[in-house]
Amino acid sequence: MAASEIRQPATWIPPPGRLTTALCLALSAILLAGGGEHGVVALLDLPTAATTHWSLNAIGLPAALDGTTLHHPTGFGIQIGYRCTVLIPALVLAAFLIALPMPAGKAIAGVALGTLLLAVLNSLRLIGLYYVGVYSPWQFAFAHEWIGEGLMAVATIAFLFFWSRPPRAPQSHV
Question: What CA–CA distance (Å, rounded) separates 156 from 115?
Answer without folding.
Answer: 9
